[in-house]
């Protein structure tokens, strides 16, 4: 059975790429909202969005941050990373900029969102503990296949890293 994960991403720019990853069927993630549904939740304010995130993250074993051009530094992505880590869930990043969007375009690589956090008593930079995978291909087809072939093992490794982290 596929691991249950929460997908974290910047909706406006990366929804199409995220759909590709989700449809691989390698992991079981939260339902992805339509743009109308997302706007409705977002329009209710930060407290309601966080309540939705908390509910969707419940029962998940890992947070998969799908990193696009403008993912790092986003308030809600940072909330999701912090919540998952503090709740002792696995956390892993995956660069998706080389997957094509609806118009067939690729994007530029974004910053590592884990650089914004420190973990443990030693205040290690989270990016030195949590892995962010950047598929070593330019072709969208090869990137897709690389993600599909490896994502389940990356999630398992992230869960193991978190379970063994003592900081």
What does this structure look like?
By secondary structure, this protein is an alpha/beta fold. The protein has a single domain, classed as Rossmann fold, CATH 3.40.50. It contains five helices and seven strands. Strands 2-1-3-4-7 form a five-stranded parallel beta sheet. A two-stranded antiparallel ribbon has the order 5-6. The longest helix has 25 residues. The mean pLDDT is 93.
The number of helical elements comes to 5
SS class: alpha/beta
Strand content: 5-15%
The total number of structural domains is 1
Shape: globular
Largest sheet: 5 strands, parallel
Q: How widely separated are the two ends?
A: 31 Å
Report the helical percentage.
40-55%
CATH class categorisation: Alpha Beta
Question: Can you give keywords for this protein?
Answer:
5-stranded parallel beta sheet, 7 strands, single chain, 167 residues, Rossmann fold
Concise description?
The chain is of the alpha/beta class.
Element layout with pairings:
Elements: E1 4-8, H1 11-22, E2 28-29, H2 35-43, H3 46-57, E3 62-67, H4 75-86, E4 90-95, E5 118-119, E6 124-125, E7 132-133, H5 140-164
Parallel strand pairs: 1-2, 1-3, 3-4, 4-7
Antiparallel strand pairs: 5-6
Helix pairs in contact: 3-4
């Amino acid at each position: 059975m596929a691991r249950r994960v929460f997908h974290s991403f910047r909706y406006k720019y990366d929804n199409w790429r995220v759909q590709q990853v989700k449809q691989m069927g390698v992991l079981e993630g939260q339902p992805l909202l339509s743009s109308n549904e997302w706007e409705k939740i977002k329009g209710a304010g930060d407290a309601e969005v966080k309540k939705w995130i908390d509910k969707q993250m419940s029962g998940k074993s890992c947070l998969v941050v799908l990193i696009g051009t403008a993912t790092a530094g986003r308030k809600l992505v940072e909330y999701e990373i912090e919540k998952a880590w503090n709740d002792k869930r696995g956390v892993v990043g995956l660069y998706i900029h080389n997957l094509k969007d609806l118009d067939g375009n690729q994007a530029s690589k974004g910053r590592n969102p884990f650089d914004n956090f420190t973990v443990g008593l030693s205040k290690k930079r989270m990016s030195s503990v949590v892995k962010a995978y950047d598929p070593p291909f330019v072709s969208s087809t090869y990137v897709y296949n690389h993600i599909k072939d490896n994502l389940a093992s990356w999630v398992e490794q992230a869960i193991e890293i978190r379970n063994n982290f003592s900081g």
